[in-house]
Fold:
Amino acid sequence: MQVPLTIGDFLDRAATVYAGRPAVVDEPGTPGSLGVLTYADLEARARGMALALDDMGVAHGERVAIVSPNATRFMISFFGVSAFGRVLVPVNFRLNSEEVQYIVEHSGASVLLVDPEIEGAVSAVTAKERIVLDGVDDRGLFDPAGPGRSPAGWKADENATVSVNYTSGTTARPKGVQLTHRNCWLNASIFGWHTTVTDRDVFLHTLPMFHCNGWGMPYAVTAMGCKQIVQRKVDGEEILRRVAEHGVTLMCGAPAVVAAILDAAAARKERGEEIPGGDQVRIVVAGAPPPSKTIERVSGELGWEFIQIYGLTETSPLLTINRARAEWDGADPQQRAQLLSRAGVPRRGGENADERGR
Amino acid sequence: MQVPLTIGDFLDRAATVYAGRPAVVDEPGTPGSLGVLTYADLEARARGMALALDDMGVAHGERVAIVSPNATRFMISFFGVSAFGRVLVPVNFRLNSEEVQYIVEHSGASVLLVDPEIEGAVSAVTAKERIVLDGVDDRGLFDPAGPGRSPAGWKADENATVSVNYTSGTTARPKGVQLTHRNCWLNASIFGWHTTVTDRDVFLHTLPMFHCNGWGMPYAVTAMGCKQIVQRKVDGEEILRRVAEHGVTLMCGAPAVVAAILDAAAARKERGEEIPGGDQVRIVVAGAPPPSKTIERVSGELGWEFIQIYGLTETSPLLTINRARAEWDGADPQQRAQLLSRAGVPRRGGENADERGR
Structure:
């Protein structure tokens, strides 16, 4: 018997092994903030979402689009939609109405979930069902299910689609990338392994969840039962404040996030304030590696570990990782930063590289 | 396109990313010891083994049995046999001739590899090809391949068999468990993730490689490019000596291994000698958890981390892991040891546990 790899495995494990542990801390002070959910709560709400989608007549395989900054309802949707056989379409919340409308139509989404802060910008976008995520009238999509209620049975299939992630469309219209359960499961596990995610990690959501499903890290940190802190907006000082408040150990982001943190740390230093997270935080950065001077500052000024990855939405996304090797421990900070600014290694062999006949 | 998960991925990655790094340190002073191999060497020898098997007319899918304590040639065989489409049959080297003969015949192995130290005990065992692993006349099975030579193409298939592992046969004859590439790939990755194997780890082979392929840890530590130290025989003092000499950080074993280490450490203490590996070594233990007093001593007397796992050969083998949680950090050593002596958690839900309809 072959057990299919589906992203529901991660939530299932967390709810079994870490039921009472804080799972997701929502952004405080926003409309409809869900506060702190445990993994039992997260599972009950994901299941509740699946039940509500059943009630709304949204069939397995149908698409549910979401336009939202990072939020607990987004985390619930990762599982409430995809773990029960439907397909999530996370949309870049910085797109305009016309672009969002295109994606909703192109993906064939029958449900559109819109964060209240984004609602103004995309009020013209239409969909069969259109729900604002302010906790007021959401068709019960985010209500927890009781222990006795099971959503309509879905025959788990690792080749079923988890999500359709639209790339930026620099050359023409955005293109939708279909990621399967197998894609996302393997990416999350391998990414989690390489970044040594454990149940002792506290993850800060600095990376947009819409961006290739937060690079799959939301699945990985859920699998390990990590405490997750939602952050809606990138703000360097706010990141530092949360690192101190929650004991954050792990975050992901584009080079711009690193720059914002370094600026905030420099300002703190000028004010004679402490920089939190030293020897404790690792920050995973993707895209073009930042200048090696920036990497050097992450270690020198923050005392954080810098990890460079490379990938594409089309590859789920992780392709390569560069984490400081023991062999580099003796190198001076500048050399070390240079070594860390590479995104891969040369492929061995030429035409015979594929030596096992694959 | 779906890329099959095969255990060759692990060696391929190591040889690409960590070509020049020491991979396997063979037991010194044994007949035909291979000394220190880099990952480039390990890959070239695994490929060389596949080429030699080609030359011997051993078809893809055929079985190659090995009766050997831990050895570098065993490590080469894990990949030289299985990564190129054949099936390894690792045999318990403590079995008698009749039992080994049964397994060779039952598995249909056409090749039998025998360690020189075992040879005397199993000299009566016959096979189509029978090779003693003393480096004298081994049909070139352990010669490195040049960069230009490719073994016969094997269409990689994750559902192909990696190995047939015979269980102890307490109720009758030993039973062969067929593990697939997918089984072994997933087990190694998840086991490696949970035990946070990184490229900074130095792994000591205290667990017999024949035992469910060393629980899959040889694949995981190869994937991460860890330095691996072969140890042929469990001997507590020798383990401590190697921890000091090589900077070992990770090992696996039955409770008896833990007991041997604790005895050796107590003897060292009496002689006023240092106990190496404090705050550095984690030891992964499977089977019936040892008494909580033993677990307490691992932390108290060695300063090592104790990790309890549970599994079966039939489950590749990892099923559950118990690693100390942050929530237990405040517990007194006795309580902590008790918490660590459990091998699982209660399954949530009753008849509705299977809530996603799976």
Observations:
- The CA atoms of residues 52 and 140 of chain A lie 6 Å apart.
- Chain A has two domains: 8-144+160-181, 234-340.
